[in-house]
Amino acid sequence: MPEFTRYQKNTAKKEPIPALKQAEDLFGFVPNLIAALAESPATVNAYFQLNSLFDSTSFTSVERQVIMLTVSRYADCQYCLAA
């Protein structure tokens, strides 16, 4: 499996830096998924937009976590389950 470049604020191109800062503000660090998505500013911004839309549903925080874990388990994504 190829390795993806993981960007940080000091190594990224100019466009994804706001998204990396947003991730750092939200999580306290830049998760590997977002660091890799920063290769494409549109992709990392879409990730945050989808996350925001999911947060605006009527599901509680716990229910959203259960949904994400269920989808991760269904997709057999061990990385997602561990995260």
Question: Largest sheet at a glance?
Answer: none
**Secondary-structure element pattern, one letter each:** HHHHH
Count the domains: 1
What's the count of strands?
0
What is the average of the pLDDT values? 86
* Radius of gyration from CA coordinates: 14 Å
The number of helices is 5
Content of β-strand: under 5%
Helix content: 55-70%
Shape: globular
Please identify the structural class as seen in this structure. mainly alpha
Spans of at least 5 consecutive residues whose pLDDT stays below 50 are: none
| Terminal CA distance | 19 Å
Short summary of the structure?
This protein is mainly alpha-helical and 83 residues long. The chain has helices at 17-27, 32-37, 41-55, 61-74, 78-82.
Any descriptors?
83 residues, 5 helices, mainly alpha
